[in-house]
Amino acid sequence: MELCNLTVQALFESGHSLADGLLESVTYPWEALGCIKETILKLGAALPTEEYDKVGEDIWIAKDAKVAPTAFINGPAIIGHRTEVRHCAFIRGSALVGDDCVVGNSTELKNVILFDRVQVPHYNYVGDSILGYRSHMGAGSITSNVKSDKTLVTVRCDEQRLETGLKKFGAILGDCVEIGCGSVLNPGTVIGRESNVYPLSMVRGTVEANSIYKKQGEVAKKLQRD
User: Fold this and answer.
1) How is the beta sheet containing 102-105 ordered, strand by strand?
2) What pLDDT, on a 0 to 100 scale, did the predictor assign at position 12?
3) Which of 21, 117, 118, 192 could form a disulfide with 134 if both were Cys (CB 3.0 to 4.6 A apart)?
């Protein structure tokens, strides 16, 4: 049974990531997590040399990106146009970072897709995750990508459970999602477009689009503007 509100089309608008081709090939976004590395290698080899510099092994950085000398980037990785990678950022590899993004101080990325204009600006850990266009993670908020009992991650939506077959799966944020400071997104969390999560939240399961997550069991729908 297809969970329509969790599909790629429901969560993301196309045209805001070099990963569009990969995501269009799957139904649910987490199905793309195992293909990020090979996708970066394929995309990187085709990037225009007048726009991107190849730095080290399988690392492509846009010429107009700004990377602090204290940042560490391990390949394969692509850093998009006008993106800022700040002091002591740690990009462990398999990171496809879009245009106009911020990867902040002491932020760690691993096996991720960041759409254009994503901000992970302060002390964030983002692993085995996909962050949609203009999504933002407040200071200290993280994705937890492995269950404590090391079993495979399932996605829960109401009374339904969808097996992913993945041991490592952090979170999927739809376009324009706002995560409050100090929040933890448990393995398999999926948050719909335009939703907000209160600071210091522990989120598990799914949050519908256009919602305000206050705490477990207390989720309000946003008022629709005229």
Assistant:
1) 66-67, 84-85, 102-105, 119-122, 136-137, 178-179, 196-197, 211-215, 218-221
2) 98
3) 117
Average pLDDT over residues 110-129: 98
Q: For the chain, what is the mean pLDDT?
A: 95
Angle (CA) 19 69 99, round 5° = 25
DSSP state letter for 76: S
Instruction: Give the Å distances, CA to CA, from 3 to 26, 106, 132.
Output: 13, 36, 18
Listed residue (100, 120, 195) closest to 110, CA to CA: 120
Q: Which residues pair with 185 in a beta bridge?
A: 143, 203
- Convert the pLDDT of each residue in 138-155 to its tens digit: 999 999 999 999 999 999
pLDDT for 226 equals 52
Confidence of residue 3 (pLDDT cuts 50, 70, 90): low
Q: How many residues does the chain have?
A: 226
Is the torsion defined by CA of 23, 24, 25, 26 positive or negative?
positive
CA dist., res. 4 & res. 141, Å (int): 27
